[in-house]
Amino acid sequence: MIAAHATPLKHHGLVDTRSVDEARDAIGRIFCPHFLSVRDRRADGFHAIHNAVEQSGYSVNFVAYGAEVEIDPGELSDFFLLQLPVHGAAHVRCGTRVTEAEAGRRASLLSPTLASRMVWRQNCEKLIVLMRRRVVEDFFETLTHRAAAPLEFEPGVDLTTPVGASVLSHARLLFEAAEGGAALPDSYRVMLRDGLLSLLLTGLENNRSAMLHAPAAAAGPLSVQKADDFIQTHAADTIAMADIAAAAGLPLRTLQDAYRKARGHTLSDGVQKARLQKLRELLLKPGPGLSVADAVLASGFGHLGRAASVYRTTYGESPSETLRRVRSA
User: Which among 62, 104, 303, 325 counts the fewest CB atoms within 10 Å?
Assistant: First the structure.
């Protein structure tokens, strides 16, 4: 479960009000127009808080209302909404399906073409990832080379399953990256976004699951080599999985399958290996004043601690140890 002892995105506040009308209007401008009402008019605990950070193709949000509220946005139209309770529970209807979301156990995923309606229980607080419909549908087309049509997910996400736990872990990384601000490279944020989209599309039940789970078409070694060449050239840049698939001339799913069979690891692992090699090269031939943090960011990594951990596992020493050894030689 994501730690809730501190308010997420507390330095990115957009709404902080005890007025229902103000909350409805302000949050409606951030998400979409909606009906909002307090279930118990006698309750005095209503306190709307909405913190948010906009990213490329998505946003991360923390929302709380204090009191029990009913929210009716109808069809979201332009975005998908992954809602992860960090405290309390909510009753969520999306289309004809209903799910009971609960902190640490169950999340909800709303689809833009299905009418939604929710009751957030008293003191319910949620981390919310808003994903632009165009970005999700474009990613689906990259995976399959098929037109997306309306994508509709089962609204319940069981966080106690391996897939659900991975969704929660990816969400945690998205929020950490947003808290990191401009210090983190765009390449890292794009990698996180694509990782979540791939997980949602291939791991959660949706109306296109049969197509996504069908065996991928075979691909030749030339396509895999094209992917490797592109990765090596652009590892430190802001690249998306879609960019690699386009360079290889294949649907992303086909490339992912072929790459795994040819190289023995995933396409994401291939990008990480190329970035590790770049990091190693920078540390072995450091310029004046180069720091480990500088080298990590220049290699396309976005998280110093995780980069250092993978580096140590691969090379048997930490990045700082490599840098000290080279400079003392």
Answer: 325
